[in-house]
Amino acid sequence: MLLFIRLSWKWTKRGIKAATACVLLGMIALLGTLAYAIMLGPPSLSTDQNTIYYQSDGEVMKGHDGGEDRYWVSLESMPDELVEATLAIEDHRFYNHFGFDLKRIASAALTDIKAMEMVEGASTITQQYARNLYLTHEKTWTRKLKEAFYAMRLEIFYEKDEILEGYLNTIYYGHGAYGIESASRYFFNKHADELTLAEATMLAGVPKGPSYYSPLADLENAETRQERILSRMNDLEYITSSEKNEAVTASLDYYDHSAEEAQAVAPYFQDEVVREAARVLDMDVEEVESGGFHIYTTLNPDHQAELEKAVDEEFSKAGEIETAAVIMDNETGAVTAMKGGRDYGSTTFNRVTQAKRMVGSTIKPFLYYSALKNGYTPLTMIESKPTSFQMDDGNAYSPSNYNNYYADDEITMAQAIALSDNIYAVTTNVDLGPKKLVDTLHDFGFKGDYPAVPSLALGTASISLYDMVEGYSRLASGSTAGQKHTITKITDQREKVLYEYEPVSSKDKDREPIDPKAAFSVAHMLTGMFDPALNGYMSVTGSSIADQLTRMYGGKSGTTDTDSWMIGFSPQYVMGVWSGYDDNRKITVQRDHQYSKELWANSMEKIHEPLPVSAFAPPADLKGVYINPETGKLSGPACPEERLVYMDKKDVPKETCKENEDSDINDIEEEINNDPWYKNVVDWFW
């Protein structure tokens, strides 16, 4: 027992010494840090946090948000309600701590330790101000330590009122508005000193998450947070219960920016740039907008201007139908122009990137690519007639052609894609097995969970226009190296490169590389939608705009009950257009189905005017041959129509259509000789 007491006392003394040493070392480290902070002197309070966007020509892009000008107002000029609301929700012990709220830090630390990651913050106003001035918004322990050090320096060299004034003049309120004066003008079109209690408490809640708590982005979330702020102010006795209730029920009149937004350069494009930057930098949208970055984009201002003009002209008398369009570089996937709707002022919903619609026949090129990879050729013949397909569940699937027109004979793949024959497409899909089309879509980068059913060949899947155009760019280029993007580079204010676009590796283990021969063969067949030589039981699907085109393009249209699509490409650019109603209303007027084609033809012609004519260059081991579209045989002197197709040399037919015609004549002569009626008629004639 005595030995146990002696050992316990021995270890107790050692523990006390160790604890004392730790405390001393901590104090020495703290004093050293404090001395170092003092030695560095006061940190600069200057800030320049506007994120700047550049067009592809290097010019600064005109933003579509307000608040580009910064305003500085003194703390005395700010209404007490605004200051008290901010303190209540952000840091009510601000005037009683030295930059750190130990109670909040302890609570947040326990939460973070339990989660084994940074999930909850305990930043005071001083720390937030330090972060906004000097640091990024990444959630790491390193950044938190730097934030604490800068907060200490601010507290050492500046008065509390100076810190609070700086914070309220630089914090980000969303929509490009930095500081309370800019926010007040943007949201309410008034000076900060004119804000009411209801307006002040609404604004005080926004900086926590501008994309989530802005009343212009989500009114319900904003009002919920405003009510919480008013309750906190009441608890802290900043306001009375009656003042709280009056503010909660007050009606707020927000300033209408639609006229300003109408003058912006590519606002839908800019929204996508911010979202893309948030993804590549792993930040929130508001952190990108307030981060002071330099973002270099792919926007071609000439392309955007032509697209905007074409939409205005085409849809000036179009009623309620909506549209979306995007232009992309074939080789790189760089987006050169984007229009997410007819009027950004009416809705910021981007129908290029955010809407998924049934794609109709625009899916067929990927089906025929799969067919070429599995033994088909551009001259494979399949009968076009009313057909029922037996499903695995025992039911019959009976697709139909447009207006129930059929060849009632065999047609080639080249003609089937030009006429958009549905029977040919479903027959091919069933013959290959629908899973092959699903696999092909995945190989081209589509990430959806698509049903492997016969009707997939007719575009029953819902896919965004953005993804469809990227798929066509890969088909036209024969490579998956290029991926859709709006940003080429992002730097910080010191021009340090934080991100730079690089083509993806073509050796993706999750998908097969694109076969350039099959891709080119399909891409060239898609030029047939404008070639009258492929007219058959109906005209080619691009006949209505073919006379507007001055160079060779490939393309495919698509029509469903509710959607109208046109996606087409030159050797340089691919453009996709969708038209329809946001509420999935059926398109009942035939003219409404023409808008997409007209907009596509108008825009593509305009953006190609300054470019030299360029041809589609086939891979070296593909052979181009002229065939007779009706028979699928080689063209000959007596053939009425001919069409160039590209295929493997081994698949080139040996017969010409002339040989086929000779055979038909011989059959007629034999029939005449063997039929007495024919013979009597001939004898009488002679």
TrEMBL record:
From the UniProt record, list the reaction(s) this protein catalyses: Preferential cleavage: (Ac)2-L-Lys-D-Ala-|-D-Ala. Also transpeptidation of peptidyl-alanyl moieties that are N-acyl substituents of D-alanine; [GlcNAc-(1->4)-Mur2Ac(oyl-L-Ala-gamma-D-Glu-L-Lys-D-Ala-D-Ala)](n)-di-trans,octa-cis-undecaprenyl diphosphate + beta-D-GlcNAc-(1->4)-Mur2Ac(oyl-L-Ala-gamma-D-Glu-L-Lys-D-Ala-D-Ala)-di-trans,octa-cis-undecaprenyl diphosphate = [GlcNAc-(1->4)-Mur2Ac(oyl-L-Ala-gamma-D-Glu-L-Lys-D-Ala-D-Ala)](n+1)-di-trans,octa-cis-undecaprenyl diphosphate + di-trans,octa-cis-undecaprenyl diphosphate + H(+)
What residues does the Glycosyl transferase family domain cover?
61-233
Q: What is its main location?
A: membrane
Top enzyme category = transferase
Q: What keywords would UniProt list here? A: Carboxypeptidase, Cell membrane, Cell shape, Cell wall biogenesis/degradation, Glycosyltransferase, Hydrolase, Membrane, Multifunctional enzyme, Peptidoglycan synthesis, Protease, Transferase
The reply on keyword Protease is yes
> Any idea where this protein resides?
Cell membrane
Looking up Gene3D superfamilies in the UniProt record yields: Biosynthetic peptidoglycan transglycosylase-like, DD-peptidase/beta-lactamase superfamily
The record's GO molecular-function terms, alphabetically, read: glycosyltransferase activity
Known PANTHER family for this protein?
A: BINDING PROTEIN TRANSPEPTIDASE, PUTATIVE-RELATED, PENICILLIN-BINDING PROTEIN 1B
- State the name under which the record lists this protein: Transglycosylase domain-containing protein
Q: Which organism is it from?
A: Halobacillus campisalis
